[in-house]
Design goal:
The protein is 10% helix and 48% strand. It is built from two helices and ten strands. The strands form two sheets. Strands 2, 4, 5, 8, 9 and 10 form a six-stranded mixed sheet that branches. A four-stranded antiparallel sheet has the order 1-3-7-6, with no helix packed on it.
Length: 128
Amino acid sequence: MILKKFLPLLPVLLLVGCSTTATFTRMTPTEQPRNANNLYPVEVGFYSQQQSLRPDSIKAYVLVDGQPLPMRPVPLVEDRWDGLIPVPPSANSVTYRFKFDFLYNTFGNQPQPDSAWSPTYKLKIINP
């Protein structure tokens, strides 16, 4: 009798148990000296405990002013990504965040898309 009451909630409980728990580790300093090409390197570690995530499907981006800029995996280092962000010569700082798109496996269906977003970070540019 009690089982019949909880049976309609089972799909919801299963979805809650499969939610993405992503951790972002920013490897970039909060300040960098101004350079001539106005491109600044950023690096992040992306870790997920979602076992259904397909690692081969991960596409990473750094978003600056809402514009996604592609990132690439760091060679020889697992779960780390790097990219470059532009900062105009007139600006002293920029805010950015990371976005990871990926597929995850589901029972009886094709893999489904999902995304994970980092908090917003700020990079300060220091004039030499």
